[in-house]
Design goal:
Structural class of chain B: alpha+beta
Largest interface: A-B, 26 and 22 residues
CATH class of the largest domain in chain A: Alpha Beta
Largest sheet of chain B: 4 strands, antiparallel
CATH superfamily of the largest domain in chain A: P-loop containing nucleotide triphosphate hydrolases
Radius of gyration of chain B: 31 Å
Distance between the termini of chain A: 20 Å
Number of domains of chain B: 2
CATH topology of the largest domain in chain A: Rossmann fold
Strand order of the largest sheet of chain B: 2-3-1-4
Oligomer: heterodimer
Number of helices of chain B: 9
Number of strands of chain B: 4
Number of domains of chain A: 2
Strand content of chain B: 5-15%
Chain lengths: ~220, ~300
Amino acid sequence: MIRMFHVSKNYEGGSFALSDVTLKIAKGEFVFITGSSGAGKTTLLKIMFGSEAPSEGQIIIDGRNYFKIPRAEIPYLRRRIGFVFQDFKLLPQGTVFENVALSLKVMGVGSIEVKRRVQKVLSYVKLSHRANFRAAVLSGGEAQRVAIARALVKDPAIILADEPTGNLDPHLAVETIELFKEVNGRGTTVVVATHDSTLIARYAKRAIGLESGRVVA
Amino acid sequence: MKKRGFTSGVVYLAADALRSMRANAASCALTAVTLGFSLAIFFLFLFIFINLESAVNKWGDKTHIVVYIKDTALKDGVERLRDSARFIPGVKTVEYVSKEKALEELKAELKGHEEIIAGVDVNPLPASFDIRVSPAYTDAQGVASVVGTLKAMSWASDVQYSREWVEKFSAFLRFIELAATAVGVFIAAATVFIISNTIRLTVWARRDEIEVMRLVGATDAYIKIPFFIEGVIQGFIGGVFALGVLTAGRYILLGRMPGYLDFALSLPLDFPELLAALAASGMLMGATASIISTTRFLGN
């Protein structure tokens, strides 16, 4: 599902975010990417998502080599990947419904189908009662669930989550990971980047450790 | 997954553009007003130029050529000679001045000094054609070409025209055209610059929304189309606004300007034509500016 071969990311001035990363994540797997702040977790996810280009190496996602995909086709690849950001990246003036619906609208899905699927996913993340509320008035836990719903609504093959529990209290953090586990149980590949060692210890899932941009475990 | 068709997709994006305009009403109104003022300034300049050029061309009517006819040629009939002059390229009108009329005019000019020609029994004055040239031939080259053809006529004894006037007029016309082109290009560039920057600000104000759209898989076209539609609508509103500004300005100035400047206030287009021209220019500028701004913003 996801394969990286000797991937490096260097910046001008000689500093680097990733160095010679080789990894393999199988279809339907649940994987934690761990490491302290600045270890390269976010860069790794961004490269998997196609929002940052590696300086060296090869990446195969969902059977396609990133370097052979024309720029114009990147949006179509992103439609197969759900990304959950630490800062949620919701449209504050849009309602919960509109934020989730955006994922389907950009794909050209008809409005009846959009309504049906958004209602279904909001019910799944237990936010149906907040559908018409503006994102700006939601609590951190609710906003995170909206972000997850937006990633899930398009039935992605892969979910990438960058510190999805970073802004949540421990109880909500567990709830969020439980939600990802449930999604994973339906066959979706889930990659969660986190520095929260208690969460990693709680779940018996494979963890790929990063330290100064290198894979250590 | 059921997808929208092309037409319903465009309708959907248009509705999205309208929703976004409602949500960002203040910045949209600002863009439309800026566009309207820019268009009004551009069209004001255009009208001044058109009116000035038409006034200057009227002065060009003063350019006339006198061609004297050999007495011997008159026996062939004036009409035949007149026709041969009338069909020369650049000739607008040909007025025949007979020998008798020339004498009468001379007498009128010499009123009080009639003794000068008192002893003349035979009319010594030649008949002539007073020729006016068409506007396209009022420059020095045009007049010279008409004069050259007239001189070659077998019946012409002499051709006279005011070379100095023609040359000065021609130089003045060239200066007006050059100045107008320079000012016109400057105003047009400034207008496009102002509008594209105003739209750029509205795109920038929605950068978070655009970023989120890209992250969830929106294509560049999907992001650009609503801005394009917004640009066209804002351009149309700006065009109508510009019409209001121009009409109000004209109404205020009418009767308050010295009479000799009245020509500057005449409209070279009918009202519906003017509305169509302003709306079309506004829409074109709005669309172009939105394409430039979004393409720059999306980095391709």
